[in-house]
Design a protein that fits this description.
Beta-galactosidase, Chain A, domain 5, ten-stranded antiparallel sheet, 48 strands, TIM Barrel, globular, mainly beta, 782 residues, Immunoglobulin-like
Length: 782
C-alpha cells in the first residue's frame, strides 16, 4: 500500500482505486521549511522510517500503519530535538504532492465534501466548480462519481495542532495536488524533548459515506467522547413571543412551563433555555450580573419554580467574549484580551444588537473582543462564573460563539497567547473548555455553537451542526426581522430548513459517535407558518435523532400545530442516513433521507423526501439505495397525507408538492395482515409501538401502543385482498381500488399510558361476522 523512495525520501500510496505518487514531507523549524528530500535517512523497516536534519538537530520518526480491511493508511510521527536549544515548530506537512492524484476512472466528475471553519451550509462540490473550497479543516472527502471511487485525506487526531487539507484542481489533470499539515504555530520543542504530530489518514475505496463513518470510529478510538444518553427536549420561545421588549421574560417562562405540563405532559420536556435576558442590560460578559427588570425574583427563584414542574434551567453563554459595555469585566481582564499583530484588541463581532444595545442606534452599539483561552485571568473568570451558575442550579448551556477562543481553527487567529506550553489554537481552546466543564459539573449538558465542531469531542455533549434554524428574534429596530419576530416563506434563509438539512446530511456520521448532532436546533411550527413548512420542520427534527428546543409560545399555540410537535416525540437515538449523498452536488442538495428501524416485533424503513422548490417534484428512489430487496414487494404508507401508496418493487416513486415533504414507511409484504403505519409519531412504530404480533392460528394481528395518558391516535393495517375483517365494529375499513386490499384504521385512546389493540380476519368467503373480532383498549403502561 505504501512505498518509500530512499533516494528522494518520498512516499507513494497505491490502491486499486487510487494512486498518490512521490509525496514529500516537510517541517517548519524556526521559520525555515525543511523538506524530506533534504533529510538524511537514518533507518527504515516495514513499519516506517526515520529522517534527520543534522544542522537543526532534529530527528523525525515516521510510522505507517496499513489497514487492509478498509484501504486506510495511518501515518503518525514523532519529532525529537537532539540539539541543545529550543526550536520553534511550525507546520509539519505529512503529505504534499504536485503530481496528479489518480482516483478512479477519469476526472470529469470528481466531487468533495469539506469541513469548513464555520457553521455555514456544507455542500458537495464538483472540483471543477470555482466555488469549491480548496481548504478543509481536519479532512476532505473525495469521490469520483463516474465509478464510485472514494478517497479520504485528513487527520484522525487534531486536538493539539491545527490541521488542514488543501487540494488543487485543473481541467487537464483533475485532482492536481494535495497537501495535509498540522501547524504547531511556533510552539517550542525544548532540547532533548520529543513530541508527536497529529496522525494522518489516507483511505481509498468504493464508498465515500463508509469512509466518513469509519473516520469517526478512528477518532473515537483516539479521542474518547462523552456519552449523553437522552436527546434533551425543552423550550426556548422567541418565535412568536418577545420576552425582551413586549412581555417580561420571567412571566413568559413561568406561563410556558405551566403550559409544558398542561399541554405536553409526558412527552419528555425537561429544560428551559433562557437566552441573553438573564444578563443585566443583555450585555455579554456580565454573566453574573442579574437582569432584575426581566427577572425580578432572581435566579434561585426561577430555578425553584421550574423544578416544581420537573424542569431544569439552562443559559446562553459566550465564554470567550468580552463586550465593550461590560466595563467591570474589561477592567479585570484587559491583559487577557487576545490581540492582533499590531497590538490592538481582536474584534470578533463589530456590533452587539441585543438587550440595551438592540434599542441603541447602530453606530453606538458595542463591539465584542475575545479572551485569551490560556490566560490565568480568563480561566479564573470562567471558573468563577460556571461554579456560581452551578450553585444556582444551571444544568444546561448553549455555549455560543466559541470561534472567539479557537484561534486558527476558525476565523479569528490571534498574534499570541499567554501560556506557551500550549499550542495556539486547538490545544489552548480545549484546555479552556475543560476548565468550564469542571466548573459546570459532569451532569450538566453542553451544547456548542458558532465555532469548532469536531474539535469539541470529549467536552461537549452536543454540537449545533448548522445555523439558527427555527429561531425568532426580539423586536429590535435595524434588524432584518424587524418589525416581526419570525421569518417565513424562505426555506433557504439562514434560519430556514434547507441549510439545516444540508448540514444534517453532511455531518450525519458524527452523530452519537463524537457527540450528539443538534441538527434541528429550534422546533417552530405555529401559525402563520404554512402547514407544509411546519411539516418540514417536524420531519427534520424527528429524523435527526437529536434534541429540540421549542420556539413556539406553548401557552397560546394552536392545538392543531401542537399536535405536530407531539408527532416528533419522543425522540429516537439515530439520525437518518442521506441517500446518495455524493450525488447531491451543488447547487442541488440532499433530498432523500432514510432510517432502517428494527424492533423486537419487526423491521421496517422510513424514508423522508424533501422538495424546497417552487414546482412539484417526482423522485425515483431505487430500493437498492435503501438497502432493500429490489423484488420486494413492499407496502408503503405516507405519513403526512395519511395515504396508502400501494405495493412497490424496484423503486419508490415519491411525488412531492412544492415546498413540502413526504415521509414513507416501507414494510415487506408477507401476504398476511400487516401494520402499515400510525398517525401518532412520524417514525410510525419505532417510538410508540411496543408490540405487534401476527397469530396465524387465530387469524389475529395484535399489538400495544404507548403514548402519554390522555392522548389519542390511530394505527393503520393492511389486509390482503383474500381476507376480510371478522367483526367490523369500531373499524374504519376501506378497499383500495388498485389492488383490492383493505386499509383498516383502528382508533386508540390512552387513558393511562397504553392501548392494546387487535384485529381478527377470516377468509373472504367465510361465514358472517362474529362479534368480538376487533378490540382497542387503553390502560397504564407497564
Amino acid at each position: 500500500m505504501w512505498t518509500l523512495n530512499p533516494r528522494a525520501n518520498t512516499l507513494s500510496y497505491s490502491h486499486p482505486r487510487c494512486t498518490i505518487e512521490d509525496w514529500q514531507l516537510s517541517l517548519e523549524i524556526d521559520g525555515t521549511c525543511l523538506s524530506s528530500a533534504d533529510a538524511r535517512l537514518l533507518a527504515r523497516d516495514d513499519q516506517g522510517f526515520t529522517l534527520a536534519f543534522p544542522a537543526r538537530g532534529i530527528e523525525w520518526q515516521i510510522t505507517l500503519e496499513e489497514q487492509p480491511g478498509d484501504g486506510a493508511l495511518l501515518v503518525s510521527s514523532t519529532l525529537r530535538n537532539r540539539s541543545d536549544r529550543a526550536v520553534k515548530l511550525g507546520k509539519a506537512t505529512m503529505l504534499k504532492t504536485d503530481q496528479p492524484v489518480l482516483l478512479g476512472v477519469g476526472h470529469a466528475d470528481l466531487v468533495c465534501l469539506s469541513l469548513l471553519k464555520e457553521l455555514t451550509p456544507r455542500r458537495i462540490y464538483r472540483l471543477s466548480d470555482p466555488e469549491c473550497p480548496r481548504v478543509s479543516k481536519v479532512k476532505t472527502q473525495f469521490s469520483n462519481r463516474a465509478d464510485g471511487s472514494a478517497l479520504q485525506v485528513g487527520f484522525v487526531t487534531y486536538l493539539r495542532a491545527d490541521t488542514e487539507v488543501h487540494h488543487t484542481y485543473d481541467a487537464a489533470r483533475g485532482l492536481a495536488g494535495l497537501e495535509a499539515w498540522c501547524d504547531f504555530a511556533a510552539w517550542e520543542l525544548g532540547p532533548g524533548q520529543t513530541t508527536a504530530t497529529e496522525t494522518l489518514i489516507l483511505a481509498a475505496g468504493d464508498d465515500p459515506c463508509a469512509q466518513l463513518e469509519r473516520w469517526a470510529d478512528y477518532v473515537v478510538a483516539r479521542h474518547p467522547p462523552r456519552r449523553w444518553e437522552d436527546a434533551p427536549i425543552g423550550w426556548l420561545g422567541w418565535a412568536w413571543v418577545d420576552p425582551m421588549t413586549v412581555e417580561r421574560y420571567e412571566d413568559v417562562v413561568i406561563r410556558n412551563v405551566q403550559a409544558m405540563q398542561r399541554r405536553l405532559g409526558g412527552f419528555g420536556l425537561r429544560y428551559v433555555w433562557v437566552s441573553i435576558g438573564n444578563l443585566a442590560d443583555g450585555v455579554p460578559g456580565r454573566w453574573l450580573d442579574w437582569n432584575e427588570q426581566l427577572f425580578p425574583h432572581g435566579p434561585e427563584y426561577l430555578v425553584r419554580r421550574l423544578a416544581e414542574h420537573g424542569i431544569k434551567l439552562g443559559f446562553w453563554c459566550a465564554p470567550f467574549w468580552a463586550c465593550a459595555w461590560a466595563e467591570q469585566q474589561l477592567g479585570e481582564l484587559q491583559e487577557a484580551l487576545l490581540r492582533n499583530q499590531d497590538g490592538s484588541p481582536l474584534v470578533v463581532r463589530s456590533e452587539w444588537q441585543f438587550g440595551r444595545a438592540g434599542q441603541t442606534p447602530k453606530a453606538e452599539r458595542p463591539a465584542i473582543y475575545a479572551l485569551d483561552p490560556s490566560h490565568p485571568k480568563t480561566l479564573a473568570f470562567l471558573r468563577r462564573t460556571f461554579e456560581t451558575y452551578r450553585r444556582w442550579g444551571i444544568r444546561y448551556y448553549m455555549l455560543d460563539f466559541l470561534h472567539a477562543g479557537a484561534g486558527n481553527v476558525c476565523s479569528y487567529p490571534y498574534a499570541d497567547h499567554y501560556d506557551h506550553q500550549l499550542v495556539a489554537g486547538p490545544e489552548a481552546y480545549h484546555a479552556a473548555l475543560r476548565v468550564i466543564r469542571e466548573a459546570a459539573g459532569d451532569d450538566t449538558y453542553f451544547l456548542s455553537s458558532t465555532g469548532p465542531s469536531v474539535h469539541n469531542v470529549g467536552i461537549m455533549d452536543a454540537i449545533r451542526t448548522g445555523n439558527d434554524f427555527g429561531e425568532g428574534r426580539p423586536l429590535y429596530p435595524d434588524s432584518y426581522f424587524y418589525p416581526a419576530t419570525f421569518v417565513i416563506n424562505s426555506g433557504a434563509f439562514w434560519t430556514g430548513p434547507q441549510p439545516a438539512l444540508q448540514n444534517q446530511a453532511a455531518a450525519y456520521y458524527t452523530h452519537r459517535k463524537l457527540y450528539i448532532n443538534d441538527s434541528g436546533n429550534v422546533l417552530t411550527v405555529d401559525k402563520p407558518l404554512p402547514l407544509s413548512d411546519a411539516q418540514i420542520h417536524v420531519t427534520i427534527h424527528a429524523m435527526s435523532g437529536g434534541p429540540s428546543m421549542i420556539g413556539d409560545d406553548l401557552d397560546r399555540m394552536d392545538e392543531e400545530r401542537l399536535r405536530l410537535i407531539k408527532q416528533s416525540l419522543p425522540r429516537p437515538r439515530e439520525v437518518a442516513f442521506p441517500v446518495r449523498l455524493f450525488d447531491a452536488v451543488h447547487p442541488d442538495y440532499p433530498r432523500v433521507f432514510a432510517r432502517k428501524i428494527t424492533k423486537p416485533w419487526g423491521t421496517f424503513d422510513v424514508v423522508a423526501v424533501y422538495n424546497f422548490g417552487a414546482e412539484a417534484r417526482r423522485e425515483s428512489i431505487a430500493l437498492a439505495d435503501l438497502h432493500l430487496r429490489a423484488d420486494g414487494p413492499y407496502l408503503v404508507w405516507e405519513f403526512w397525507n395519511g395515504e396508502y401508496v400501494g405495493r412497490v418493487r424496484e423503486q419508490l416513486i415519491a411525488d412531492v408538492p412544492p415546498r413540502s415533504v413526504r415521509v414513507y414507511r416501507l414494510v415487506q409484504y408477507q401476504g398476511v395482515p400487516t401494520l402499515l403505519g400510525t398517525d401518532m409519531h412520524l417514525l410510525m412504530g419505532e417510538m410508540e409501538i411496543a408490540d405487534c404480533t401476527w397469530d396465524a392460528v387465530s387469524g389475529t394481528l395484535s399489538g400495544r401502543a404507548l403514548r402519554p395518558a390522555g392522548e389519542k391516535g390511530s394505527v393503520y393495517i393492511h389486509v390482503p385482498e383474500t381476507l376480510r375483517v371478522a367483526d367490523p365494529h369500531g373499524c374504519w375499513i376501506a378497499k383500495d381500488a388498485r389492488d383490492k386490499s383493505l386499509i383498516v384504521r383502528l382508533a386508540l385512546d390512552f387513558p393511562q399510558g397504553y392501548a392494546d389493540w387487535s384485529l381478527r380476519v377470516v377468509p373472504l368467503d367465510a361465514a358472517a361476522c362474529m362479534p368480538g373480532g376487533t378490540h382497542a383498549g387503553g390502560g397504564e403502561a407497564d
